[in-house]
Amino acid sequence: MTLLQTHNLDAYYLDFQALYGVSISLDAGQIVAIIGPNGAGKTTLLRSLAGWVPVERGCVTFDDESIGGFAAEKVVALGIASVPEGRRLFHSLSVEENLLMGQESNRSGDWSTDTVFDLFPVLQGLRKRRGSDLSGGEQQMVAIGRALMANPKVLLFDELSLGLAPTIVGDICRTLPVLRDKGVSMIVVEQDVRRALDLSDYVYCILEGKINLEGESNELAFDDVANAFFGV
Ligand SMILES: Nc1ncnc2c1ncn2[C@@H]1O[C@H](COP(=O)(O)OP(=O)(O)O)[C@@H](O)[C@H]1O
Ligand SMILES: [Mg+2]
After folding, report:
1. Which alpha helices (H) appear in the chain, and where do they start and end?
2. How many angstroms is it from 158 CA to the middle of ligand 2?
């Protein structure tokens, strides 16, 4: 069942076109990876889905409802939450307070600070620590937890591994199937081609605002994806 979809999506920053006719689809229970080099349009695509970048042409549908042009808060309230590039925590707030910020959509569900601490036990002992005093990996866990506190059906995950220590990246990757089992479908932006193929069911490669390769992750050849990444 298709949960979230774009069809021929164009997006602009003023008169600069960042996305050209992008069509992607996320099924319920699926993990979709978006890969591509810096500046390809990955963040723009997620921001278009999340209501932060206007949908200039084409459409975005969620649960068969057109959501293109919806405000970001409304998109979260419908069940699409984001883990943004750079985490964007409130540095003066504690771990617990940052997590509680994610509850603002008032969606009902099982996620709470306790269930986030079950997922990331290391955060339990850091609950009073300020966002500014966390490592990058800990911040990433808080950002994921904050998104989960909105009880999303879909998680939009920008730059899963960027700047994080390999062990932390492993820990975070291992939580993705756990989240899937809890009913969360995911779109994950990841620049490491091997990791993107490993963690996902389906992959879209994006280059200069256009999708230049897509397919089932276990059917695509690594070299083809790497070539698409570099545009050769
Ligand atoms: N706020 C912005 N204003 C103008 N141009 C932007 C803005 N954000 C991104 N861009 C441009 O849009 C293109 C796509 O950027 P982005 O989606 O951030 O790429 P990626 O996430 O793949 O690195 C790039 O050329 C980038 O310079
Ligand atoms: Mg980006």
Report:
1. 42-50, 72-78, 95-101, 113-119, 121-124, 136-148, 166-181, 193-199, 222-230
2. 7
Q: Is 145 in the pocket of ligand 1 (CB under 6 A)?
A: no
On whether the CB atoms of residues 97 and 172 are closer than 8 A, the answer is: no
Residue 200 DSSP label: -
What residues are neighbours of ligand 2 (ion), with CB under 5 Å? 42-43
Tokens of 116: 């986030």
How far apart, in whole angstroms, are the C-alpha atoms of residue 104 and residue 27? 26
Ligand 1 neighbourhood includes 228 CB (under 6 angstroms): no
Instruction: Say how many Å lie between the CA of residue 110 and the centre of ligand 2.
Output: 30
Instruction: For ligand 1, atom 6, name the residue with the nearest CA.
Output: 13
pLDDT tens figures, 47-60: 999 999 888 889 99
User: Among the atoms of ligand 1, which is closest to the Cα of residue 159?
Assistant: 21
| φ, ψ (nearest 5 deg) of residue 111 | -80, 135
Ligand 1 proximity of 167 Cβ (cutoff 6 Å) = no
Ligand 1 pocket residue status of 197, Cβ below 6 Å:
no
**Domains in the chain: boundaries:** 2-230
User: Residue ranges of the alpha helices (H) in 51-135?
Assistant: 72-78, 95-101, 113-119, 121-124
Thinking of the domain 2-230, which architecture would CATH place it in?
3-Layer(aba) Sandwich (3.40)
Give tens-digit pLDDT for 136-188. 999 999 999 999 999 999 999 999 888 888 899 999 999 999 999 999 999 99
pTM over 0.85: yes
Please tell me the residue having the least CA distance from ligand 1 atom 12.
Answer: 18
